[in-house]
């Protein structure tokens, strides 16, 4: 992977202020507005995904970027493209609509953003973070490896949190959120009581998988929230899957579950094999799987809006 570090005078955004046209898909219709360079900033960082609609890998990275944006609260992601002839632009809009790309798209008519950041190939990702020089990744995925062994997605998570995040080192798996919208293959989860839970034998009900570990405040808070939620919704299968490295983790985890998560099934992931299977590289991570076995939501860290995410009422 080729990486360019831009000169320090390109910190944050280019020195010049430009006007850009931004389009965004909402309720099946395209909306357009003008925006100036200074208004593009996220709280901690801004990410520009440069793409061409005629290149399939460009469209794929936009889909990935949209999934990434769902879990980032302090980072803003934009797609950036140079409009072609009028008829080709119409084709582009139709493609993005079919893919339901709702990220804001900057129409960089004169390649001002591209030239400012030195982008020469597409697709490319430019990360403009607070206290860092802008970095260009000539890549078609957010999973490209960085020098420290992590990937672009993991780096963005750290920036978004404003601190070092809880990461299980040594995992090079795709992020768990890649499962969102996917019909899951059958799987079995061992339970603490010696029984097991198999997906295909429990279709017809919603399922929440909550991956957690001991000695983590965020994991404990999520356990408490799910435990209260389970009291109100006994018709939903909820499994708290404990990451177990040794027998001490197992017994300590059982004590915590008994006190704070007794309404949930306790799953045991000995050797962290389930974390690898579900591509979990950060805890807590949770999956909502609908009654047909399709993953409708993947969450990282905090848990909220469960009622809405589960779509308990038929639309």
Quick rundown:
The chain has about 325 residues and is α/β, with parallel strands linked by helices. Helix content is about 25%, strand content about 25%.
Count of extended strands: 15
Estimate nothing, just give the exact number of structural domains.
2
In helices, the fraction of residues equals: 25-40%
Secondary-structure element series:
EEEEHEHEHEEHEEEHEHEHEEH
The CATH class designation of the largest domain is Alpha Beta
Task: Determine Rg (CA atoms, Å).
Answer: 22 Å
User: Could you report the average pLDDT, rounded to the nearest whole number?
Assistant: 79
Q: CATH fold name of the largest domain, please?
A: Glutaredoxin
Q: Structural class of the helices, strands and pairings?
A: alpha/beta
Largest sheet: 8 strands, mixed
Unreliable stretches: 1-16, 163-174
With strands numbered from the N-terminus, the spatial order across the biggest sheet is: 1-8-7-4-5-6-2-3
């Amino acid at each position: 992977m080729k990486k360019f570090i831009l000169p320090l005078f390109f910190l944050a955004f280019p020195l010049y202020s430009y006007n850009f046209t931004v389009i965004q898909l909402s309720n099946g219709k395209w909306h357009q507005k003008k925006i100036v360079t200074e208004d593009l900033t996220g709280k901690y960082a801004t990410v520009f995904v440069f793409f061409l609609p005629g290149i399939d890998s460009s469209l794929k990275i936009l889909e990935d970027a949209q999934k990434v944006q769902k879990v980032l609260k302090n980072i803003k992601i934009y797609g950036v493209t140079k409009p072609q002839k009028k008829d080709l632009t119409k084709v582009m809009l139709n493609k993005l609509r079919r893919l339901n790309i709702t990220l804001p798209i900057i129409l960089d008519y004169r390649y001002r953003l591209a030239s400012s950041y030195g982008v020469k190939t597409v697709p490319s990702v430019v990360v403009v973070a607070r206290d860092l020089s802008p970095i260009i990744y000539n890549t078609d995925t957010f999973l490209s490896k960085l020098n420290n062994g992590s990937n672009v997605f993991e780096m963005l998570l750290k920036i978004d949190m404003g601190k070092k995040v809880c990461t299980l080192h040594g995992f090079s798996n795709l992020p768990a959120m890649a499962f969102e919208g996917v019909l899951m293959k059958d799987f079995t989860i061992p339970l603490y009581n010696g029984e097991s839970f198999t997906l295909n034998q429990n279709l017809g009900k919603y399922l929440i998988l909550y991956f957690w570990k001991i000695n983590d405040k965020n994991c404990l808070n999520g356990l408490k929230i799910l435990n209260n939620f389970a009291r109100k919704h006994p018709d939903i299968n909820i499994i708290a899957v404990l990451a177990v490295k040794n027998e001490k983790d197992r017994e300590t985890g059982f004590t915590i579950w008994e006190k704070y998560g007794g309404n949930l099934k306790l799953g045991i992931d000995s050797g962290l094999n389930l974390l690898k299977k579900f591509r979990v590289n950060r805890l807590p991570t949770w999956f909502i799987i609908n009654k047909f076995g399709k993953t409708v939501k993947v969450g990282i860290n905090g848990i909220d809006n469960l009622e809405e995410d589960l779509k308990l009422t038929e639309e």
